[in-house]
Amino acid sequence: VVAAWASVPFPAPHGYSLPDTLCAYQEDVPWKLLSLCREQKVSCCFAQSVVLRGIRKERRQPPSPLHLCDSTEEILQRYLHTVFPGAFSTSHVLEQPCPTLPPYPQFFSPLLTRQGFLQDKPPSHSSSAVESIPVLAALQSSPVLHTLLTGLYKDVQRLNTRRWPSFFSAGVEQGDFQEALEELRTLSQCYETGFEADESEDEADSD
């Protein structure tokens, strides 16, 4: 089971290199959780696959270890190992950005350039539509899945299936349903950590 994360567009300021951008996120990550559950503040995961497109490495004076990397993929990989030590991380880099020409919806901030990079203030003259954006997407196996799967288990457990006779018309028996529900609870425990256990106790107390 994995949770989906993404940054659309990737928050790269205009004129900044990838190491410059990533160095600004040492205490956090530049992407947001897409799966339906509450984000955790703990920077921890078991395994992840990350794809970055539309960002190239720029040669600059190396003020940090990230600037010493030879390629964009090496920069991203070193960043992932720094933020998520011990996790199995794979990364892929595509130079071509994500095209956003019509009919792609133009819901972007006026601070974006036509190439999707952030600038300090919007241009004084009316600019044309954003033509492309850099994007980062990640599939991550992490403790947040314990919260997501436990929430799903509790929601399904509350269902009164007797009120919907057609619920089992497809051939699923009540016993099979209960067994699958228990397997879901067991699956959620596979992603439980000490931090998650403490949080679950707090939620139980609040209930």
Task: Tell me what you see in this structure.
The two termini are about 25 Å apart. Helix 2 links the parallel strand 3 and strand 4 (about 90-95). This protein has helices at about 20-25, 70-85, 145-155, 175-190, 195-205, and strands at about 5, 30-35, 45-55, 90-95, 100, 130-135, 135-140. The protein folds into two domains: about 5-140, no CATH class; about 145-190, no CATH class. The chain has a five-stranded mixed beta sheet with strand order 2-1-7-3-4, with helices on one face. The longest helix has 16 residues, at about 175-190. It is an alpha+beta fold and about 210 residues long.
Short description:
This protein is an alpha+beta fold and about 210 residues long.
Chain-wise SSE layout:
Blueprint: E1 3-7, H1 18-23, E2 32-33, E3 47-53, H2 72-83, E4 88-94, E5 98-99, E6 132-133, E7 135-141, H3 144-157, H4 174-189, H5 194-206
Parallel strand pairs: 3-4
Antiparallel strand pairs: 1-2, 1-7, 3-7, 5-6
Helix pairs in contact: 3-4
InterPro entries: DML1/Misato (IPR049942)
GO cellular component, one term: mitochondrion
Protein name: MSTO1 protein
Widest sheet: strand ordering: 2-1-7-3-4
Largest sheet: 5 strands, mixed
Structural category is alpha+beta
The total number of structural domains is: 2
According to DSSP, the number of beta strands is 7
Shape: globular
Give the overall average pLDDT: 82
Low-confidence segments, given as residue ranges, are none
Q: If helices are DSSP runs of H or I spanning 4 or more residues, what is the number of helices?
A: 5
Residue share in helices?
A: 25-40%
**Sequence of secondary-structure elements:** EHEEHEEEEHHH
Residue share in β-strands? 15-25%
Rg, rounded, reads 22 Å
